[in-house]
Amino acid sequence: MTAVCPSPLANQSLLQPISSTVHYILSGTFNTLFLYLLAFNPSTAELTVERSYRAEGPHQFLALNEQRTKAYATTWGAPARLSAWDVLDGGRGGIEKINTVPITATSSYIQYSTLGDLPRIYSAGGPTGEVHDVDPLTGGFGNKLQELLYVEKHELEKADKTRVALRYGSHGIDLNPPRRQAFVPHLGHNSIFMYNVLDDGTLDLIADCPSFGDGHDGPRHVVPSPDGSVLYAVTEHTSFVDVYSIQDSSLSHLQRLSVIPPSASSTRLSYRGDTLRLSQSGSYLYATTRGMTKATKGFVAVWSVNADGTLGSAELLEEGELARDGSKTQDHAPLDRFETKTSGGKANAVETFPFHTSAKGVKEQRDWVLLTDDEDGWVWVLEWDGRKIKEIAGVRLGEGASEEEKGTGASHAVWLS
Predict the structure, then answer these.
(1) Do residues 30 and 374 touch, judged by C-beta distance below 8 A?
(2) Range with the lowest mean pLDDT among 61-70, 288-297, 354-363?
(3) How many other CB atoms sit within 10 Å of the CB of residue 170?
């Protein structure tokens, strides 16, 4: 099955592409149980659907191993479970399922890491989280080494373990390799759980760190800086990006920046903050928000990252004047905000391009960003040229496909090659 949907911009002259190689992408879906293999051709600015695969259920958030030869997926399907997939020849040969494993409660986010003695797979959602080892023969899920609890042990049996619990429970998990730490944002606690990663890959709780703000922000997704000194968090309920200095046993707030423009501040509660990602070089941070209804479009905002991990430039305030957070500087707006074509539905998730050919650490001025849409089922490739974000390609999942694939919504997409 091949569906070609070039962007309206496809016939316009593009900047010299980062690469002329066709890149393969794997996308999950929200409303059906399919995974989609996509191909992006930068020379023609076309994104195509190459094939769909029957998966374990709706809503797949995806993670890859370091070699991008294995993919790991969550699902909202029942019973709660996780699945592992072989990625064949960088996606050119498609994917094949390795195995599935049962978990206690529906998981939301997942990540692969080699911080311990051996590789581990980390997931979290609602009242629980998990640490699995990796089967050395297949690369799939092995044994569950640890179950993380976000309710009292005696409350777990009666706790909601469905996708509903993701609205007020743990929502993500991200590892901080330089400091051997892990972070789990928790919407209901309005906090970020902070862990040490032990030698066997299991997690030891350090602190439950309150989110900056008025107690109703709901941190949803976090990502650490490349050097491990700073943590970035996006809040679901208020659409802010918070910047924290990572201490040994706490988080110290440095900045708060708005994903939505000042003109939308009076309707801030009409948005839902979603995901954030750093560019490969760590020189830019992208953050997204979604509209609560179809009447409200979402945003992708991009900031420059300073040497100390803070975001954007800043100007001194008048003498004696303090910003809301008590600092003596006023943060500038992001370098650009891109209004999405739809509300994003439950998605507007982003993933940055990981295959720049420049030497590691070079601050690229151009980047490609995957953006997923749940409302109408689109996956887009956005380009950041150091000044503006623009759409260069897009494809709508499920269009012209089988009846059971209609109405799908793109959940999260990753670059395979």
Answers:
(1) yes
(2) 354-363
(3) 29
Residues 22-55: tens digit of each pLDDT: 999 999 999 889 999 999 999 999 999 999 999 9
What type of residue is 392?
I
Cα 95 → chain centroid: 21
State pLDDT tens for residues 128-164: 999 999 999 999 999 999 999 999 999 999 999 999 9
Cβ count within 10 A of residue 343: 25
Distance set, CA 196 to CA 50, 224, 341 (Å): 41, 14, 40
Before 79, cis peptide (omega within 30)?
Answer: yes
Q: How many CB atoms lie within 10 A of CB 400?
A: 11
Whose CA is closest to 230, among 299, 296, 179?
A: 179
Give the integer Cα–Cα distance in Å for 167 and 373: 19
Give the C-alpha separation, 58 to 109, whole Å.
Answer: 14
Angle at 324 between CA 322 and CA 330, to 5 degrees: 65
Domains and CATH numbers, the chain: 23-356+363-415 (2.130.10.10)
For 352, list phi and psi in degrees, rounded to 5. Answer: -90, 155
Is residue 316's pLDDT more than 80? no
